[in-house]
User: Which sequence fits this backbone?
């Protein structure tokens, strides 16, 4: 294992930070910021690979499939974070985007020793989700060698699901088991081996890209507005009404009226206002257009 770790760029010592323990807070922060600047450039180098994964996820969604993240430690937590935030942001059901972590729910809050070392557990956890060929499974591991993730990817491939991987080392082991591998080369951390830093930042950026671009691809965004936002608190209710007003050009009072008439469905309210339709007709138009507001309105105008 020591020999393996020595071959991982995420485990090497950063020559710029050998005196880290002797630096002032200001100097530490400056070094961290300078190293973090490299992350965005590293992600930029892999936009082509990320695009392939987005295309795959969009296809899964259109076929009624799911996006499933699987990982251990920081990687697993980041997958769960992205999955959980899709529900209020894009109005998805809790099953549409899911995250698995080695060690289960306990591992979200505290480390579960040895949980990531079992390929069998990675497979077992994925089996619990009744995987189908319409799903896309994304294995996340900064090291690129986590057995739990490899086990999950192997099982996903056997079940005919689409597979992708996200790691931060070149020629990562998990890349061998993914149809669409992504390797973001973030290099040595300022704190040796602490992949919650640059590697974690890179993973968060890529997961943001995958889920957001995929949701745009299935009609959950109009212009740059989150039109499937779930108004689950006062702030989001105000945002929902503001979105209706912004898109249609109506005042907030009118937006509030149509917010209620649409049963708190922003997209339906927008189509009702722009196309002069009742709720049922607006909902039908959205269904026929695959959830895209522009097509729903244009289709009506073309009649």
Assistant:
């Amino acid at each position: 294992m020591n020999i393996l770790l020595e071959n991982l760029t995420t485990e090497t010592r950063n020559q710029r930070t050998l005196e880290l323990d002797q630096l002032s807070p200001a100097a530490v922060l400056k070094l961290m910021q300078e190293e973090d600047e490299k992350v965005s450039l590293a992600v930029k180098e892999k936009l082509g690979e990320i695009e392939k994964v987005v295309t795959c996820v969009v296809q899964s969604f259109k076929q009624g499939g799911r996006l499933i993240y699987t990982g251990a430690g920081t990687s697993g937590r980041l997958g769960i974070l992205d999955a959980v935030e899709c529900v209020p942001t894009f109005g998805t059901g809790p099953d549409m985007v899911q995250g698995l972590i080695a060690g289960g729910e306990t591992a979200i809050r505290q480390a579960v020793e040895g949980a990531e070392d079992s390929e069998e557990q990675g497979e077992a956890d994925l089996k619990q989700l009744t995987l189908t060929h319409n799903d896309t499974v994304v294995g996340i591991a900064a090291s690129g060698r986590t057995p739990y993730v490899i086990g999950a990817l192997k099982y996903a491939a056997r079940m005919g699901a689409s597979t992708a991987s996200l790691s931060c080392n070149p020629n990562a082991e998990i890349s061998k088991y993914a149809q669409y591998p992504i390797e973001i080369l973030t290099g040595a951390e300022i704190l040796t081996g602490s992949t919650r830093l640059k590697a974690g930042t890179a993973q968060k950026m890529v997961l943001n890209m995958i889920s957001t671009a995929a949701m745009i691809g299935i009609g959950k965004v109009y212009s740059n507005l989150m039109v499937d936002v779930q108004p689950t608190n006062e702030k989001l209710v105000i945002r929902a009404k503001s979105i209706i007003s912004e898109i249609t050009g109506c005042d907030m009072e009118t937006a509030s009226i149509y917010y209620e008439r649409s049963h708190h469905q922003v997209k339906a309210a927008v189509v009702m206002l722009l196309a002069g339709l009742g709720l049922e007709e607006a909902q039908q138009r959205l269904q026929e257009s695959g959830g895209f507001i522009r097509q729903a309105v244009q289709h009506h105008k073309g009649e």
